[in-house]
Every structure is written in structure tokens, then in C-alpha cells.
Amino acid sequence: MEQVSSTGRPVQITVTDGHDLKGIKGDTPVTFVRVEFNQVVLGDSAKITVSPEGMAKYNFTSSFEFNPEGGITLDDLAHKPVFLTMTEVLPKEKKQKEEKTLILGQAVVDLLPLLEGPLQNYMAGLQVPSLGEKDYPILFKNGILKLGGEKEPVPRPKKWPIANILAPGANNIPDAFIVGGPYEEEEGELNHPEDREFRNQAECMKKRITWDLESRSYLAPSAVVSFQKRIADCRLWPVEITRVPLVTAPKGKAGKFDKTEDENQLSFHGVAYVNMVPLLYPGVKRIRGAFHVYPYLDSIVHEKTKCLFSLFRDIGHHNNKIGGINSPLSKQVVSKNLKEDKTVKEKDIDGRPRPGDVQAPSIKSQSSDTPLESEPLLSNNPEGQQYVEAGTYIVLEIQLDKALVPKRMPEELARRVKEMIPPRPPLTRRTGGAQKAVSDYHMQIKNISRAILDEYHRMFGKQVAKLESDLDSEALEEQKCQLSYELNCSGKYFAFKEQLKHAVVKIVREKYLKTTSFESQEELQTFISELYVFLVDQMHVALNQTMPDDVQGTIPTIHTSSDQLRLFAFEAEVNENFEMAAVYYKERLARESQNLDHWLDYGAFCLLTEDNIKAQECFRKALALNQNHIHSLLLCGVLAVLMENYAQAEIFFEDATCLEPTNVVAWTLLGLYYEIQNNDIRMEMAFHEASKQLQARMLQAQVTKQKSTGTVEYIEEGGKIDSSLDPWGITTGSSATAIKMEAPAGPGAALSILDEDLTEPSKLQSDSQEPIVTAHSQDPTMSQKPSNTFLKEIPTKKETSKCQDSSAVLHPILHYDISQPPTTIFMETIHFLMKVNAVQYVHRVLAHELLCPQGGPSCEYYLVLAQTHLLKKDFAKTEEYLQQAAQMDYLNPNVWGLKGHLYFLSGNHAEAKACYERTISFVVDASEMHFIFLRLGLIYLEEKEYEKAKKTYLQACKRLPSCLTWLGLGIACYRLEELTEAEDALSEANALNNYNAEVWAYLALVCLKAGRQLEAEQAYKYTIKLKLKDEALLAEIRMVQETVGFGNPSF
Question: What is one term from the GO cellular component aspect held by the record (predicted)?
């Protein structure tokens, strides 16, 4: 069977002879052969008489047309055979008009070898630095075409790249196996979830080329340096692939054979651009992935990789077609017209070329205008273009024995952090403390009271027993004087004082934290008065415990929790009362100095007030409490960058990525640090790792969501996804570096170039085989895009009663990220930085978000910009960015909430009211409803819409009760003349914060209206003492006092 060239692209079938033929009517029958294909008779041979030896010479040729666009296609050749029917012509009998025939047998001819091409060799190759000036070529020959329908098994052994190994199994490398791996963890292309189906089909259902080879190369120290420099300069490394026809050389015709070889060019010459930059990442020793194959065009290859020549042409591959490419150890053959001492240049081309669509300029020598004879005129590469059309890719792995760039060990990073910030030793447990000091005071009071009662009973017991209830007040006063005289004369009073003195000293030290002398006499007197009141109150508590029958109902004390103090501090920040906010933060630290969250919150407050030194101190104290706390490490790194201490910043960020490798923010901040240091390669590494972790988290969230909804779709786990393509590897030695390279187990749907098998008539003999693939063309420049379906946990709102603790997390910067989870690594980092008030760092991240392919100007982007400018009181810019955000998402409640804050702060309360009302009317709440309710309620009070104010403040009290929410509710109720409800609300506000002068002022008004003189005077006294600033409210109080005739003791 022979395939010849013609313009009609025929396939010729020749039947030469038959053997061992026997007829029905005799041993020398007359026979002919009929050729059929695709249910069409191609022709009958002549009628030949079989010789007595059973042989017949037919020498019959038939043919059919092949047309890839219609009619008989490659698919027909692959699965339809040619039928050769042997027929005997029976002798004619008398009166027989027509010949009778009898079918003797039938032969079936499989045309698949036309596609497989038994004399076809696929080869891949690349170069690595060596000791000399020239690079060392590594070639992977004899790529095997495999049919579709079967996936490559894993693990499977790797093979030596050496021919002529005769012993069975000896070509397998000991203890070296191809294990594959999940697509998502690859560094190349086609590693996105949307590529999974395409790769599964390509590596299982489609035809593919497999090598399963591993080649190793030794890199001397100088070669390692050269390797690093080449990667840094070029970034992309060309890996070429071609089809090498193998033709048996006729004996005695070497000259003619060589001439034919020289005329041949590389067929189906493609190139994959492997991004080698990950090998310059600290600690990275291996890259593995699938890379698109493009047509080899010299101009494109030189532009991307700075390589002037093709590896295959440089080593003279077409001068040895019998054995494929020359061995790398053999002498390299270079065309005689290519002078090494001459540089080459390229003609200018217009525009940016596209693969397979560019007229590639020929390479010329500097001294001549004629193309070099060794460089073919590659005006186009139609064969290679089929790689792009079919989505061809090659999977390879490059592995080093030692990383080119060493990575700091986690132990070293931890040691460096300890050197900078020594861990704070845990506080020793003390038996003292404020609570124990008060308890000891109670105990001494009880003991002394018993001793005094015993003395009283000794002196007046009999008298009391006789008189019983007849004792009058004068008699009791007389007994009291006698008891006091006796205690003083006997020295017992002094003993009781000494007994109580130690307990009082402990209260001064432990409860009031007074251990140094007072600065003035006035300060001393003030403290003594405060201490006296406390001691008397505690004495009554102790006496009531001793004599429970006389105990009256005690008033329960409402203690503020740490979370409530944090809420009060946030409210003070929003109202720009930074002094009061600092008091709340310090109160939290005084209660629990070992709680690192308190230090982080105080540090974030210091960042808001631009006190970076104090913020750094707070973050370092938090890190000293727990040196494995990620947020503390990151914030220490951020402050180190802001204070230009870059060496420490790198330590903090790297330690964070080591402690929590899946932390997106840690990797992103590390990348931003490398950007500041102009280290583009490490910046790319950090951002790539951050994107990888965000994508992995998104996939996990998808699986979790599907499980929760009961609609789980099967998603292969990473460890179960086998790539049928074996990777290339590189291995390094100790002082030098050894590289091993492993050719892939087939470019999966790759090499679907095979329509060319019958489309180039001049190559029908040598290029008779091509895999048949129908695949989608993939965009080779497609960057990795994390999915936008990452699920974010939205905190649940909790309704709390007036005595319950508030656990909500609020912030004065007012974050707006309710409905859309972070879609990029930069937006997630922005959320983190905004929560800690690191606004100085945010603008650098926003620039990346704007340029990020997955990011860009979005509603969330403009909201963050608006927040940062609102903090600077740049109202014009804030309004401009909010207009942009509203155009992108008009129904976003966060946009309207922030608009309301803008108008409120700028004094336009009418517009603020409209925006706030729109915000609370949405089905979905904005991120920070607390401050929206507070400010909307205040506007209602200003406009005397007291019923609306009451409803608004009630909603705020249900969500997050605080002094301000209860105060607003109390004011609204007072204005509505609901005095009982007003007093209850104001009492709650006073219990949460008894230093608020406005609360005392409205309590005074309520008591004046209720006719309670003593309470009205007390409330007014505290209003004056706390220096109420609202003159209108003071005037109102004095007017009501004049009306009722009491309430001001100075009258």
C-alpha cells in the first residue's frame, strides 16, 4: 500500500501478488481482486490464472481521493478499513450466457498506519548553560504517538534517554516515577478550573505524544550563575518541538541522499515558552506545568527569549535523519555559511505579531543583504500554526537538587523575631490583686465589728437585758460615748486601726494603683476623699453580709465588658473625641494587659491619630505576648515599612508566610514590600502565591456551599488528578548544580496538526502520520484569574438587651464590603489595612487593584477611595468617588450610607437625612448601621421629629446598646413627655457611662418635671461638674428650675 503525491491528494492501494491460492474447481483457477473502501468499489484487477505453486501476479493499483474538508476524511482513514475480495471465475458451462463467480476469501487492510506513521519521530529539546560559551542541548527523541481512549497510568517509570538498551526493563530509571499532580498546583498555563475538562479530554480521549524520558545535566558553579542571570534577563525559556521524519538510507547512494536531506526543512516546528522565573523564588526547586505550543517564528522567539537560532537547526538535525538528531555529545554541525564571529539582525516589522499570523523576517548577516543559507525563509509557519488552532500544549517538569535562591528557614525567622522583640514572660500568679485587697478589707471589717460587739456586750450586756426595748436615744448615745472612751483608754481603738491599716494600704496599691507620692496637696485631698467614700461603702457591704437580717435590697451594678468599652471607644473616634477614646482603650488594657487584641486595637487607634511610634510599640507588645500571631506580625511589618525599617519588615512578612502559608494578606504584603525594594521577581512570586491561595479558598468554599445546599457536583481532589503528561525536571549537586529534565508524557490534545499529513504532497513518504485532535484553541497569554465566587462569612446580627455585652466589631472608618467578598488579593489586603487604620499603606494597594486584571475600577474600589478622602476631610474628592461608585452599583446601601456621612460631616443634614433613610430602607443592611442610626436619630431630634427619632434610637439600642443610643432614646422620650420611659433610658445611659454631662442634664430635667428635688439637684450638680458644653440645654435647665422653684442649690 503506497501513498503518493498529487494535486488530488489520492491514497493509492497496490495489490502486487497472491500466495497459497486454491480454487473450488481446480488448483489453477482464474481469479481477480476487487478493492472496496467506504462502501465504494475502487476497482477490479485483471483476471489472472493461478500458477500450480498457488501464486498469482496482479500488480493492480487503485486509489481514492482524500479531502479534509469533506468526502473521505482523516476520521474515515482511522476507523474504516480497505476490503480486498478474492474472487474465482468459474468455467462457462454449455448454454451459459454470463460468467459465474465465487468468492474465495477477503483481506482487510487497516489504514491507521497511514496516520500513525511508523517511520515518524517526534522530538523536543531545550538548552541549559554549560561550562563553555555554548549552551548544552538536551533532546528528547522518539516521542510515541498514542491513541485516545486511554489515560496514562500513574505512577509509571521514567526512562533513560538512551537508545539500544536491549535488556528488558533496563531502560527504566531505578526509583524514578512519574506521579503527575493536580492541575491547580502547576506553575504553567491551563491550570485554571475552566481548563479541567479540556485537559481531561486531551489527556484521555485524544491522541497524544508521550516521551516518559528524564535527562539530567550537571551545572557547575559558573553555569549556575549564568543560569540565574539568563532567567532574570529573559524570564521565558524556549522548549522546541518538531516532527523528525526517519528515512532508511539506500545503499550506495549516500551523495544523493545527503543532497535530499539538505533541501528538507523542519516540519511542524513549534515552541513552548516556559516561564522559568519561579526557579528564582526563594526555596523553589521545581516547576511543573502545561505550556501552550506556538509556531516557531524566529522574530517572536528572539523577542521573547533573546535566542537567535533554533536549537534544532543549530545542531544540524536534518543532516542525520536515519537516527534522528545527533547526540549532544557528538560534534555539533553548523552550516558552513553561518559565521560565528558575525552578528545577526532582524528587519523591522510593523505592529505586534500574533502567533502564526506574522511574516517572520529572515535572519541576515551584517555584511550581506542576502539571507543566510542556514536560515530558511520563514515567511510563515502554517504547520506550526496548527498547534495554536488545536490548543496544543506540552507538559514538562524542571527540578533542581538545590534551590537557586536559598530560603530562610522558619527557625531562623523565628529567632530573628525573638531578637527584635523578646517574648514577654507570662506574669507570675499573684495571690493579691484588687479583688483580694477588697476581700481582705471586708474580712478585717467583720473581725473588728465582732470585737466591738463583744466589748459592747461585756460593758452593757446586763443593762440591755434588763431594759430590753426601753432604751431611748439618749441612753444609746451615752453607751456609745462610754464605749468610745473605753476603746481609746484601753488601746483597743489603736489596735483596730493598725489591724485595718494593712488592708487599706493594699486597696490603695491594688485598686487605685497608687504607689508614688502625690504631686500636690490638692491632689492628695481629692484622692483621700474618693478613698474615704469607697471604704465607707465597702464597710457597709461587709456589715450587711455580717448581719443579713438588716440588709436592704442592694442596687445591681452594671459592669461594662471589654467589648462594650471597645464600642464606646469607636463611638468616640467617630465623633472625633480622641481623648475619650484613648481613655476607653487604656481602661481595657488596665483590665487585661495580657490580651493582645487590646494592644492591637489601641495600636490601630494610634495609627488613626498618626502616632506611628506608639502604634509600633502596641503592635510589638502584642507580638511579644504571642510570637506566632499572624496579625501582630503583619502589623509590625506594616509599621516597619512606614518607618522605613525595611530589613525588619522583610523578617516580619516572611515569618508570617512561613507560619501561615495559606494567608492571602501575608503573601500580598510581602509582594508589596518586594515592590518597594524593586525586586520584581520576588514580588511576582508573592503575588502569584497569594492568588493561588485565594483560588484554593474559593474552590473550598464552593464545595462547602454545594454540600450545604445538597447539590454537590463531583470535583476531583488534587491528589487524584493525574496528568498523562510526564514532566521535565532539573536536579543540582552540592558545590555545583545538577539538572534533570524529564520530557512530558505527551502534549495532551497536542499535536493535532495532523491534517497536514495528506495536505503536503511533497512529504507524503516521510510525514505520513499525525494524531487527529479536535480541540478548542486556548489563549496562550491568558493569565491566572482567581474566581469571583469565593464565599465570605458575613457576621450575624445579634439583638442584645440593655445589660448584654456587645460583641460586634465596628470601626470609625466605616467599612463597606457587605455583599461582595474580596475578588482579588489586593482588595482583601485593603480590607485588612482599613480595619487597622493603615490608610498610609492603602493607596499603594489601591494602585495595584486598579491595574489588576481581575480588579480595576469597581464600586468597592471607589468606596475605599471615598473613605480615605473622607478621613482627610476632602469632601469634594469624596463626593466625586461616591458618584463613580453609585454609577456602578446604584442599589448598594454602602454607597448611600457613606454619602450620608459625607453630607453629615459637611453640615448638609437635609441631604444626609435623605441618604440615611434610603440606606435603612434597603433589604440588605449596610456594613455599619450603628452610626447611621445614631446620626439619623440626631437629625430627627434637630428637626423635632421626635417619634421618628424614638423609633430610630430603639433600633440602635436593640442592635448595639451604648450610652449614646440610650441617651438619644431618652431625649426623644423626654421631648414626647414620656417621662417614665425617658428616665429608664437615661438611667441605662448613665449606668454605661456616668461621665456624660448630657445624660446628667436630661436626668435633671426629668427629675425637675417629676418634682423630685433632691435627685434634680444631684443631677444638676454633676452636670455642672462635668462641664456641659451645650449652652442651650443649660439655659433650658435653668428655665425649668425657675418654673418649678427648685433644682439649683445656689438659689
Answer: motile cilium
Angle of CA points 162, 166, 167, to nearest 5°? 110
Domains of the chain: 9-114 (2.60.40.150), 120-246+266-310 (no CATH), 430-460+477-545 (no CATH), 568-626 (1.25.40), 1000-1050 (no CATH)
On the 0-12 / 13-18 / 19+ scale of CB atoms within 10 A, 465 is exposed
Alpha carbon distance 50, 31 (integer Å): 7
Q: Do 920 and 940 form a contact (C-beta atoms < 8 A)?
A: no
Tens of pLDDT, residues 625-634: 888 899 999 9
d(CA 916, CA 902): 11
- Cell 430590753 appears where? 468
Q: How far apart are CA 775 and CA 790, in angstroms?
A: 30
- The answer to whether 107 touches 84, Cβ cutoff 8 Å, is yes
Tell me the pLDDT band of 948, cut-offs 50, 70 and 90: very high
Q: If you average pLDDT over every residue of the chain, what do you get?
A: 74
Residue among 11, 146, 145 nearest 68 (CA): 11
pLDDT at residue 970 greater than cutoff 90: yes
- Distance spanning both ends of the chain, measured CA to CA: 128
| DSSP secondary structure letters along 411-476 | HHHHHHHHHHSPPPPPPPP-S-SHHHHHHHHHHHHHHHHHHHHHHHHHHHHHHHHHHGGG--HHHH
Per-residue pLDDT at 247: 52
Q: What is the DSSP letter of 392?
A: -
- Give ∠ CA 261-267-268 in degrees, rounded to 5: 170
CA distance 775 to 505: 87
Tell me the pLDDT tens digit for each residue of 52-69. Answer: 888 889 899 998 887 766
Cell numbers found for residue 610: 498618626
Which pLDDT tens digit goes with each residue over 680-735?
Answer: 888 988 998 898 888 888 888 878 777 766 544 433 333 333 333 332 233 333 33
Sign of CA dihedral 164, 167, 171, 174: negative
Q: How many residues does the chain have?
A: 1051
Contact assessment for residue 124 and residue 239, using Cβ atoms and an 8 Å cutoff: yes
CB atoms within 10 A of CB 809: 14
Cell of 546: 455580717
The phi, psi pair for 14, rounded to 5°, reads -115, 125
pLDDT of 180-217, one tens digit each? 777 777 888 888 778 888 888 888 888 888 888 888 77
Q: 30 φ, ψ to 5°?
A: -95, 125
The SS3 of residue 999 is: helix
Q: Exposed, middle or buried by CB within 10 Å (0-12, 13-18, 19+), for 68? A: middle
**Contact yes or no for 367/97 (Cβ under 8 A):** no
Rounded distance, CA 722 to CA 716, Å?
10
pTM of the model: 0.61
Q: Whose grid coordinates read 485587697?
A: 437
